[in-house]
Amino acid sequence: MQMVKDVHLTGKDLTEMVQLRPQDVGKYAIVPGPKDRLDVLIKKLENPVRNFSFMEYTMYTGTYEGIRISGINGGRFSTDTSITTEVICNAGIQNIIRIGTCGALDENIKVGDLFIVDEVIRGDGVTPYYVDKDFKTISDKKISDLLYEVAKGMGLNAHRGKAWTTDALLRETREIVENKRKEGAKAVDMVSSALLTICQSYNIKAGSILAVSDNVVTGEMGFMNPLYYTAESNLIKIALETVKKLEGK
Asked: Domain containing 144: what range?
């Protein structure tokens, strides 16, 4: 017997499973990775309503200065990010901003700085199932431009450019890292490739802004650095202000 369906479980199937409808969500989604960062975001929204909780993922929708915004803890890795991104896209949300963390691949990018992703070198295991190797994964230019503009306007150290997404956190070797730097990568994360590629496949506008937690080139670890935690909190402020600008406010 052959497999009955062309695809066992689709993003549409999963969206229906959690009973999420286009009228339930906002025009914009802000997508942190962990639940604790989502909790901080939801406190900024007025009258947030929980859309669903499924496994460890939860989505809320509320308003910010009159703008409907949805928030979900979208995952820390490409695999779980692909699932939540499929749900967001199938729910009909049209603008998505990822707020996350990255390592710097440039000695001039410091812990606590911010990095806006313009393009991605895909090193994850998810996207080969979506696109061929020649596909160019990029952010929406308007979203990226506004994220950079807002960050700079707040007086923050913001950088932008090409990021490399990997699934192998503990195999960022000198040989591999130097090869990715030669390809133009200035930062490395574990999410942007899956989120941006899937959004492109649905013609959904998306961007990614990341707080720098460590520097892979110099070996600096900043996970306990107060500058990193400040950058994390600034991500939410930047994303909300960017949504306002996208809305013309």
From this structure: 22-246
